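Every protein is a chain of amino acids, and every chain bends into a shape of its own. Below is the pair of lines this work produces for a single protein:
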Amino acid sequence: MPASPSPGTPWYREPWPWLLASGPAVAVVAGLITLAIAVESDDGLVADDYYKRGLAVNQVLSRDAQARRLGLRAAVSFSAMRVRIVLEGALEPPPELRLRLIHPTRSGKDQSLKLRAIAPGVYEGTPAPLEGEMRRMVLEDAQASWRLAGTWSGRQEAVALGTAR
């Protein structure tokens, strides 16, 4: 038979109350850590206007088809703090382009760049630091009449954007 505690031993000197209280204490600490992570890394809504975006799919497909009809291709190169795009196939190169760099999970890290023509068919712009993370790229003219899309891994120096034939 185990030895019973002496009548003069205070409760806090016994191991059993501490062992029993440790489970709920660990759960409370884990909950506070989870709360801190959730507050610090707010992902935001995926899309608050998802219905309108769903209806706009046909417009996006028609813009892809227009890029195919024009035979557009683009070479995107990344260097220190610069993005350079060489656009081929357009009848007349527009004066500026828009490049959207879309983070796959966090809309707060998305970027939209206006690229200015520095030569016929050659455009440059300066993005915010990209942290070497993967991005979906969407290149379009200022009127959004066509678009080219692709994926950048975050480590590539150059990416080719074109239309699937």
User: Anything to note?
Assistant: The chain has two domains: 11-40, 50-162. The chain has a mean pLDDT of 82. The beta strands are 73-79, 82-88, 96-102, 111-119, 122-125, 135-141, 147-152, 158-162. The first helix runs from residue 15 to 40.
